[in-house]
Design goal:
This protein folds into 3 domains: about 55 residues, no CATH class; about 210 residues, Protocatechuate 3,4-Dioxygenase, subunit A (Sandwich), CATH 2.60.130.10; about 30 residues, no CATH class. Helices cover about 30% and strands about 20% of the residues. The protein is built from 8 helices and 13 strands.
């Protein structure tokens, strides 16, 4: 950071019209082409936004204050910045870009702000929710690759709210994880557990994100769903969720997470399933066949879609570590 050891370009007399090119000029020495490109586009869009809206100092300070408050409310069990990203649709957009899905594979959706890393590893058949007021639900799923081959030893992270619509971490009296677990698929690619029927619930709206929703005249509710996250070496990381069809908030999810392919109808446990899985006949049943994409499949598709997007923008680009940067050679 010694100025005498850094070759800094000379800046021009700064105006509304030339400030952007001057910022690009002074950032141009960045040796990482991807970081340089990201900053170039970020500065360009931020400056264009200010010019286009004729942003006032008061409005700019209001935005700074809002982002400060977002950071101040974050904790180990609450990520308000993820919540902000969710409610403006950015989380879903980034996931869709970074984890493209070929046909017949399971689509991704938002992680949400309440995933934790303290869920206990459980055997198939375990009960993950101990809420006595929840309606019992048997979850019986499989996981395969895009060729239909069952995948064993897939780490499956699952989590859901209780019957009142709260995650365990939202309780001050929390003593440990509940409504969440980490399982593994068996040799047939099957994993199953005992949960409760998901219910709709509001995202936390007691903080700055909630204030923003109220200003926008939006509701904070999410439709009934259950989260799933899949991890297996050689396969693209999948964060997804299953949503109950015809939920009152199916078409107005506060965080834009619902996709048609992720809507499910609950069935009923039949007599054979009741005996096999140790649950009551007639209990609610959630079934789904998840399909993972290999790392190589995802890489090819991600790079192909990136270059198509750059061509549509009329930009001459190349790939650097699998991501687009300006082709200046």
């Amino acid at each position: 950071m010694d100025p005498s050891k850094v070759d800094i370009p000379l800046l021009k007399d700064l105006t509304i019209d030339n400030i952007t090119e001057n910022v690009h000029l002074i950032n141009s020495g960045c040796p990482d082409p991807r970081l340089k490109y990201i900053l170039e586009r970020l500065v360009t869009h931020a400056h264009d936004f200010a010019r286009e809206t004729r942003l006032s100092t008061d409005e700019w300070m209001t935005g700074i204050k809002f982002l400060t408050e977002v950071g101040q409310i974050c904790s180990d069990v609450r990520q308000e910045f993820i919540l902000l990203s969710d409610i403006i649709g950015l989380s879903l957009l980034v996931d869709s870009i970074d984890h493209p899905k070929p046909r017949a594979s399971t689509e991704g959706t938002v992680l949400g702000p309440f995933h934790t890393h303290d869920a206990e590893s459980e055997a198939n058949g375990s009960t993950i929710s101990h809420d006595p007021d929840g309606e019992p639900c048997l979850v019986l799923c499989s996981v395969k690759d895009t060729a239909g081959k069952p995948l064993d030893a897939v780490k499956v992270d699952v989590w859901e709210t209780d019957s009142k619509g709260f995650y365990d971490v939202q309780y001050a009296t929390r003593e440990g994880p509940d409504g969440r677990a980490v399982l593994q698929s068996d040799a047939d690619g099957v994993f199953w557990f005992k949960a409760i029927v998901p219910v709709p619930y509001p995202i936390p709206h007691d903080g700055p994100v909630g204030k923003l929703l109220r200003v926008l005249k939006r509701h904070p509710y999410r439709p009934s769903h259950m989260h799933f996250m899949f991890d297996k070496p050689g396969y693209d990381h999948l964060i997804t969720a299953l949503y109950l069809r015809n939920d009152p908030y199916e078409t107005s999810d506060a965080v834009f997470g619902v996709k048609e392919s992720l809507l499910v109808d609950l069935g009923r446990v039949d007599a054979d399933q009741a005996r096999r899985y140790g649950v009551s006949e007639g209990a609610k049943l959630l079934t789904y066949d998840f399909v993972l994409v290999s790392d190589e499949e995802a890489k090819r598709l991600r790079e192909s879609e990136a270059m198509k997007a750059m061509e549509a923008l009329g930009r001459r680009m190349k790939l650097y570590n699998g991501l687009p940067v300006p082709d200046v050679d």
